[in-house]
Design brief:
The complex is a heterodimer. Chain A is an alpha+beta fold. Chain A has seven helices and eight strands. Helices cover 33% and strands 22% of the residues of chain A. By secondary structure, chain B is an alpha/beta fold. Among the domains of chain B are: 27 residues; 107 residues, Dna Topoisomerase Vi A Subunit, Chain: A, domain 2 (3-Layer(aba) Sandwich). Classes of the chains: A alpha+beta, B alpha/beta. The structure holds zinc ion (ZN) (2 copies).
């Protein structure tokens, strides 16, 4: 069956002397592999259209959904060039692509989330995009942290965040492992809604705290597969000793 | 037959060509022996050059030990085949540095997994004017180039990137948007 879809290119490998294999995330958040015949030749019409981190419109032939398909056409729609020209942003983008490639069951909506996040990065936002992405991913995966009232007793006086409890907790319900957040809960709410400018208003140590907390929440609620993300992200974002 | 199967490991050799080569070897045993001996010789002597990382028989390799070459310029490439391609073109007379891969976090390959540290040491030790970054114009090649630029900027050495654009002998209307953009950015003035 011939299909025409928008897709995010996650990875491309040399296959034979002349061909490449690409891994893509399609607009309906399916992960598939396609063979791009002749793509390694200098006169290939695939050219830069199938480079990782491109949003491209592709036409492919696939027999059954589990097979490898054959790429027929590819045309880049958004190359995210401002990301590719900046090492720091590129490293964050690797993290986002890596999640799309490794997440056990890509949920509906992952494609849209990836592209919204890459668009934020492309426009100039940085590590705050990662927080936005993770909070939205928790939501897609059905494990959103509750941020408005205490997960345990429902009190509105929340000053802490607890990973294992699943969100904000009050003074009385906090555990030894809870993070003290104070006003940072408002920030999380803003980031979740895509209001990324608020990130500029907090201090470096507060940023590190939020990043660590969100990462630990991911490990606990999405699974240990996420662990390797800390090797991909730059040291400034995620210091290796935890 | 095992020989035809083995021959098909070679790039560009399909079943038909493998059969033709196998048949040639059978009917010309002397030539077959010569090939077998030279393959064995190469495999027993081949190593990596300690300085540039290229494959070589002598260490350091003939390029690194040559005094005929421009020793103030290093061209950084991904793999030994790239050195071979530039040498074949005969357009460059400086030294090389082979990274042995590109930064590719999705394959678990970070900067420490490729030969970046040895390049930084060379930049410190050798008397260099220029380092030319000639990694492929792919997403990974570009990311590696950015990383190298960042790591090398503390030295007083000119860092350049090979130009990107439309391949010679092809059609402009076949080029993708990014290639066209890069070609436009890399345009140059006519000199008379
Ligand atoms: Zn409570
Ligand atoms: Zn050498």
């Amino acid at each position: 069956m011939i299909k025409r879809k928008d897709a995010l290119i996650l990875k491309s490998y040399n296959y034979s002397n002349s061909s490449k294999i690409i891994h893509i995330l399609t607009e309906d958040s399916e992960r598939i592999s396609l063979i791009a015949k002749g793509a390694r030749r200098t006169n290939s019409r695939f050219g830069g259209n199938i480079e990782p981190l491109n949003l491209s419109e592709i036409v492919y032939y696939i027999k059954r959904d589990r097979d490898m398909g054959i790429l027929k056409e590819a045309m880049v729609k958004e190359p995210y060039l401002f990301i590719k020209d900046d090492l720091y942003k590129m490293n964050i983008a690797w993290g986002l692509l890596w999640i799309a490639k490794r997440i056990p069951d890509p949920q509906d909506g992952l494609f849209g989330l990836e592209n919204r996040s890459l668009t934020f990065l492309n426009r100039g936002f940085k590590e705050e995009v990662l927080i936005y992405f993770m909070l939205s991913l928790f939501h897609l995966s059905g494990v959103p942290p509750k941020l408005n009232k205490c997960v345990k007793c429902g009190s509105k006086e929340v000053l802490f965040f607890d990973v294992t409890s699943g969100g904000a907790v009050c003074e009385a319900c906090k555990l030894g492992t809870s993070f003290r957040l104070n006003n940072l809960l408002n920030l999380l709410n803003d980031l979740k809604k895509g209001r990324l400018r608020e990130w500029k208003e907090i201090t470096d140590s507060e940023r590190r705290k939020v990043i660590r907390m969100v990462f630990e929440y991911g490990l606990y609620h999405l699974g240990e597969w996420l662990n390797r993300l800390s090797d991909i992200l730059p040291f400034e974002i995620m210091p290796k000793e935890r | 037959m095992r020989l035809t199967e083995a021959l098909q490991f070679f790039p560009g050799i399909g079943k038909k060509s493998a059969e033709r080569i196998a048949f040639y070897i059978l009917s010309n045993p002397q030539d077959g022996k010569k090939i077998a001996e030279s393959v064995e010789e190469v495999l027993s002597k081949i190593k990596f050059c300690n300085i540039c990382g290229n494959i070589t028989v002598e260490d350091p390799c003939s390029i690194c030990s040559s005094h005929e070459r421009n020793r103030t310029t290093i061209c950084v490439v991904e793999k030994p085949m790239d050195v071979f391609a530039i040498e074949r073109a005969g357009i460059y007379d400086g030294l090389y540095h082979v990274l042995g891969g590109l930064i590719s976090p999705l394959d678990n390959r970070g900067p420490d997994e490729i030969r970046i540290e040895p390049l930084i040491l060379r930049a410190k030790k050798e008397d260099l004017n220029e380092i030319i970054i000639a990694t492929n114009p792919t997403t990974e090649g570009e990311a590696t180039a950015l990383y190298l630029q960042e790591s090398l900027k503390e030295f007083n050495i000119k860092i350049s990137r090979i130009a990107q654009g439309i391949p010679v002998g092809t059609d402009l209307d076949f080029a993708d948007d990014i290639t066209l953009l890069r070609a436009m950015e890399g345009r140059r003035e006519f000199k008379d």
